[in-house]
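A quick word before the example. In earlier lectures we treated sequence and structure as two separate objects. From today on, think of them as two lines of the same record. Here is Pentatricopeptide repeat-containing protein written that way.
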Amino acid sequence: MVTTFQPLSFQTAKLSIFKSKNKKQKQLHQNQNTNSLSFPKSTPTPFIIYHKPSAQTKLQALGAVVKDLEESVDTQTFASLLEICYQIEALEYGHRVHKLIPRSLLRRNVGLSAKLLRLYAASGLMDEAHKVFDEMPNRDVSAFTWNALISGYAELGLFEDAMALYFQMEEEEIGEAVHRHVVRSGLLNDRFVLNALVDMFAKCGDIVKARKVFDKISSRDKVSWNTMLTSYMRHGVLLQALDIFRQMFDEGYQPDSVSISTILTAVQSLQLVVQIHGWVIRRGVEWNLSIANALISAYSKHHELNRARWLFSHMPERDVVTWNTIISAHSKSREALLYFDQMEKDGALPDSITFVSILSACANLRLVKDGQRLYSVMKNRCRISPIMEHYACMVNLYGRSGRIKEAYGIITDGMEFEAGPTVWGALLYACYLYGNVDIGEVAAEKLFDLKPDNEYNFKLLMKIYGNVGMLEDVERVRLMMVDRGLDS
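And the structure line, produced from the sequence above:
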């Protein structure tokens, strides 16, 4: 006999669930200073409507139940659940609700997406929040979504990201109005206006619309090509960037130093780098500063250090980018120190990036005294305040040399701001290298909060436990991964 369940209202279903977990829920509410939950009034929502199947297999019957369940949960129910999760800071349950929401529903409902985004942003999970933001339809309907994301970045101290998003909000809303004005004013044949629109849409994150405007430019100039090329590069769309570069040649346009430097940063083929190098030699522009710097970087990326060194030694002029590039290219060789000394002798002023490169080299080579000396030069002689990357280099320097406590001391005693994932990641890896369980656990816990979806950190802690025979802890971490959906 098949039982047919009567439709339950959302309130009734809620009460039945809460009764079964009464003690746990009371304790949870006391901990979070929440005396009661107030659900928005909604129309009765059938949770299970199981119609009697006629000559169905068990799988077909199950499919019918699931289908009815999916169709019974409406937008208001999901919105109510997400609101509750936000109010009582129940991120784990919010994540589970997110998994239940059909992607098609989330894409077409701005309000639902906004509530989910706010929950993630308020919990500090900005990667997840921004992913929801990127997939939102009509996100310029109101400022609520933007404000939630901006506030999330600001709460974490990521003020540059917050400001960039603020200006993007203004550009995106104003940009659409400008585009409509251009169409109404008959300015679609004005190359200057269209170039500006390409750049604007690209900076607002709409690379598809930027390309549509670009394709409407009947007579393109170097600004047109370079804007579209750099837009693709900015968004990491390398294949399209290469297509634009080839299209420039096909239409008889000669790339300038901006085009060449930009494409060299994306080229994945050494053969193509050599071809571009040959082309710039034939044009007589191989010693253009930005092109030469880009060539050194491209050859270094392909481990062609002899070619990179030859270019560097024959350059008629160099800037700080040149020095940074050649030092970074030798980050696993003592020659990095020689280039830094030569840089100082030539009177070139190191910048913040220079010290990231040279301190990285010291860490890779385990040159503790050199690293300490250069760190002092950076702070005292060059008056450069350390940033996150510098601290990560120093933690890596001490950690790779086995001085785990000193590495940890930099984080606890030497930093003016909270350590980020790169710093804690360097410490965790050092603990793995030298089997330091106690500090490794501290680093791992911090990383689990900062990067909850990075399974590499979980696996590294499992290896630390495994190497010292702590098999129960290995299993505990494995179950944590499963609970977070990282058991791939």
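Notice the following. The mean pLDDT is 79. We will return to this example when we discuss secondary structure assignment.
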